[in-house]
Automatic annotation (TrEMBL):
Reactions performed catalytically: 7,8-dihydroneopterin 3'-triphosphate + H2O = 6-carboxy-5,6,7,8-tetrahydropterin + triphosphate + acetaldehyde + 2 H(+)
Annotated EC: 4.-.-.-
Lineage of producing organism: Bacteria, Thermotogati, Thermotogota, Thermotogae, Kosmotogales
UniProt similarity note: Belongs to the PTPS family. QueD subfamily.
Enzyme class: lyase
Pfam families reported for this sequence: PTPS
SUPFAM superfamilies, A to Z: Tetrahydrobiopterin biosynthesis enzymes-like (SSF55620)
Cofactor dependence: Zn(2+)
Origin superkingdom: Bacteria
Protein name per the record: 6-carboxy-5,6,7,8-tetrahydropterin synthase
GO MF assignments: 6-carboxytetrahydropterin synthase activity; metal ion binding
Organism for this UniProt entry: Kosmotoga olearia (strain ATCC BAA-1733 / DSM 21960 / TBF 19.5.1)
Gene3D superfamilies xrefs: 6-pyruvoyl tetrahydropterin synthase/QueD
Residues of the active site: C23, H67, E108
Amino acid sequence: MFYITKEVTFDAAHNLTSYHGKCEKLHGHTYRLQVTIKGEPDEEGMVIDFAELKKVIKEKILDKLDHSYINDLIPQPTAEYIARWIFDELEPLVKTDKRKLFEIVLWETPTSFVRYRKE
C-alpha cells in the first residue's frame, strides 16, 4: 500500500463563538495542510498524479479558505472541524477503485495540529 501526501499552506481568519477564552476574538493563522491519499498505483505507476492532487486541493480548498473568514463556511471553525470539512470536500473527488482519501493533517500553529481520518 502507498501513501501519497501533498502539503500546502493558507492564511485565514476565524473566531470561536462557542468558546470562552482568547480564541473567541477574531484572529488569524497561517495553516499548514497535508492531504494523504492511500492506494495502489494505476497503469501509469501512480496512486495519484501530484499535479492532479494539487489542482483539486487548490480548487476545492484553497480557493475557498485562503484569505477568508472561515466562520462564513464553518460555524465553529476549530482545527478539528476545519480538518473534517476539508476531508468531506475532498473525499469524493479523489476516490477511485484503487485509491481513497486517507488522512487530513492540519496545523493551526507550528506546534499544534489535528489529524483526521474517517474510520
